[in-house]
Design goal:
The complex is a heterodimer of chains A (about 280) and B (about 160). Chain A has about 280 residues and is of the alpha+beta class. Helix content of chain A is about 50%, strand content about 10%. The longest helix of chain A has 21 residues. In chain B, helix 3 packs across helix 4. Chain B: One of its GO terms (molecular function) is ubiquitin conjugating enzyme activity.
């Protein structure tokens, strides 16, 4: 997504250069052409990649990398020892949130107490955001869809119904939108702490408006920390990249401030490969 | 989820009717279809668009507010950031993830916590201060930069037209 304009060969500097006004006519509607191209690419992705897939054996990952790609083949072999299945999410910039929502609800399908806890957090978030200056009517609609999903899962949730819900863009995307607000609210309520980690001299508020709240903006560690803390859901991320070390890098995100320890029990486990998050299962 | 979109649009319509922002009048074109709106925007004071009442149309997608509406000027307007066919080029209206013009990363972006009111206020600001970095109407952008007097005159001609003069 981030490379959207590169595909047309027009760099921001070409457009932002006000020193010469030698615009050529065919550039005028570039904006629209790019948008059409982008829409087409998104349609292709949507047609070929469901928002979430069924569980797939991790062994399938072997075929994704060249046989002589030793670094990745070693890492896949390492991964397969512990994790038998992967569930893919669509690479649309929302993957972290979608994986989080799906992984969390799936883990707690029959755990009514935990779902009730999360439902309450979901319910309370709106008022917290209103206190931060958000307009009530911009939150109410999104919250009510999310509450509806949680209530349906509580009543008669199965893995299959969850997949159906999450493959339906409207349901799935409302959940993503609201998790983005969880992150935004948490960052703003703990701004003294997080301010130090924001680059480009942005304020926390600006960061939330441009990098958290808009759909399809990708997530970084700061988003992950904020969401796990806001939802109080411990998360383990297994990093798989081209770094030379043969072992996989594990990063645990605690849901509370008590810190992680050897007995860390994640509620959700994700596989991170540069730019993308999928779900992992031990069995 | 058109049901959620409809509820949201009704809530926004109530809000805009009860607390209308200065110089803006907006609502659905007909009671039958809440997904097509008309908005009347008054040209901001102290700008060449002052006294003009510009008619615009907004079309909302069925997944609003996850995706932004599309907006178009119906009244003729000569402005660097409005395409000759009336479409408005402003960052808050771009589809999520879409960054065709290489906007500053700090540019306002669409998200579900934005609103119709915020869009219209952004457009009013744009009338007052064109964004030279993303020209949609080359002639207007060029004239705005090189011959401000002529630009103001052309803008005022559009104002007179909106008033039927």
């Amino acid at each position: 997504m981030a490379a959207g304009y590169e595909k047309t060969g027009v760099a921001p500097s070409d457009v932002g250069d006000t020193s010469s006004l030698s615009y050529v006519i065919h550039d005028v509607d570039l904006d629209r052409q790019t948008q059409l191209l982008q829409n087409e690419i998104e349609r292709e992705i949507a047609a070929s990649q469901p928002l979430v897939t069924d569980k797939i054996p991790t062994a399938q990952l072997q075929s994704e990398y060249a046989l002589d790609d030793k670094i990745y083949q070693d890492k896949v072999a390492e991964l397969m020892k512990k994790y038998k299945y992967i569930r893919r999410t669509r690479g649309d910039g929302n993957c972290f949130y979608r994986a989080f929502a799906f992984g969390y609800l799936e883990k707690n399908l029959i755990n009514k107490k935990e779902l009730d806890r999360f439902r309450q957090l979901t319910y309370d978030l709106k008022d917290q955001l209103v206190k931060l200056g958000y307009q009530d009517f911009t939150l109410e609609d999104v919250r009510s869809v999310v509450i509806e999903i949680i209530d349906n899962i509580s009543k008669e949730g199965t893995e299959q119904s969850l997949i159906e819900n999450f493959c339906s863009p409207s349901y799935s995307n409302y959940f993503v939108a609201y998790l983005r607000l969880f992150v935004s609210g948490y960052l703003q309520m703990n701004r003294e702490f997080f301010e130090n980690f924001i680059e480009d001299g942005k304020s926390i508020k600006e960061f939330c408006c441009t990098e958290v709240e808009p759909m399809e903006r990708e997530s970084d560690n700061i988003h992950i920390i904020a969401l796990t803390k806001a939802a109080v859901v411990p998360l383990r991320v297994i990093y798989m990249d081209r770094s030379q070390q043969s072992s996989l890098t594990i990063h645990d995100f605690a849901g509370t401030d008590e810190g992680t320890n050897e007995n860390f029990e994640p509620m959700i486990t994700m596989l991170y490969r540069p730019g993308h998050y999928d779900l992992l299962y031990e069995n | 989820m058109a049901g959620s979109a409809l509820r949201r649009l009704i809530a926004e319509y109530k809000q805009l009717t009860n607390n209308p922002p200065d110089g803006i009048l907006a609502g659905p074109i007909s009671d039958e279809n809440f997904f097509e709106w008309e908005a009347l925007i008054t040209g901001p004071n102290g700008t060449p668009f002052e006294f003009g009442v510009f008619a615009t149309r907004l079309h909302f997608p069925s997944d609003y507010p996850l995706s932004p509406p599309k907006m178009k000027f119906v009244s003729e307007i000569f402005h660097p950031n409005v395409y000759p066919d009336g479409r408005v080029c402003i960052s808050i209206l771009h589809a999520p993830g879409d960054d065709p013009m290489g906007y500053e990363t700090s540019a306002e972006r669409w998200s579900p916590v934005q609103s119709i009111e915020k869009i219209l206020l952004s457009v009013v600001s744009l009338l007052a201060e064109p964004n030279e970095a993303s020209p949609a109407n080359v002639d207007a952008a060029k004239m705005f930069r090189e011959n401000r007097e002529k630009f103001d005159e052309t803008a005022k001609r559009c104002v007179r037209k909106t008033l039927g003069l």
